[in-house]
């Protein structure tokens, strides 16, 4: 799996957006550094799946900026469907 970028791009919009999902910047940064699964999404976005050290399973949606840096579009708890997909994929590897 090719890793994308090393540093996430943050601005007021995405900081406020993830806050609405009760996700912190530090949780997103933690999962981004260690995510175990990625999937292509719509509009050339990537869905990244991983979990925090405390066990919280998150889905992070990123888009690529014009400088090819990962911009956080959203971050939230995995849905039940995503959780099943994540569990199946990570156990298979």
Automatic annotation (TrEMBL):
InterPro entries: BrnT_sf. This is Toxin. It comes from Candidatus Gottesmanbacteria bacterium RIFCSPHIGHO2_01_FULL_39_10.
